[in-house]
């Protein structure tokens, strides 16, 4: 039989491990990733021609739009 203190200690460790990264942190990293993707897309589109440049610009606008949506939906 397991002593009560050991069971309680294991339960506390499990609770602490589940809350290391919260939802706000994950959303923050997602926003930073979208900003980086949009910036890289704009830089890449500057050196391209034709349909490739248009698709990079469209993807960059979508990435920045995602950031704006996340930012304004939280307010």
Explain what this protein looks like in three dimensions.
By secondary structure, this protein is mainly alpha-helical. The protein has a domain at 23-73. 84% of the residues lie in helices and 0% in strands. It is built from three helices and no strands. The chain has helices spanning 4-18, 23-46, 50-73. The longest helix has 24 residues, at 23-46. The model has no long low-confidence stretch (mean pLDDT 79).
Please specify the SSE layout and strand pairing.
Layout: H1 4-18, H2 23-46, H3 50-73
Please give the alpha-carbon distance between the first and last residues. Answer: 52 Å
- Give the overall silhouette: elongated
Strand content: under 5%
Q: Provide the structure class.
A: mainly alpha
Number of strands: 0
Mean pLDDT: 79
Secondary structure tally, helices = 3
Biggest sheet character: none
Radius of gyration, in Å, reads 22 Å
How helix-rich are the residues, as a percent range?
Answer: over 70%
Order of secondary-structure elements: HHH
Low-confidence stretches: none
């Amino acid at each position: 039989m397991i002593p009560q203190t050991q069971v309680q200690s294991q339960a506390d460790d499990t609770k602490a491990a589940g809350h290391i990264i919260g939802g706000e942190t994950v959303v923050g990293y997602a926003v930073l990733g979208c900003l980086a993707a949009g910036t890289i897309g704009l830089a890449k589109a500057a050196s391209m021609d034709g349909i490739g440049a248009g698709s990079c610009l469209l993807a960059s606008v979508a990435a920045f739009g995602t950031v704006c949506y996340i930012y304004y939906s939280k307010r």
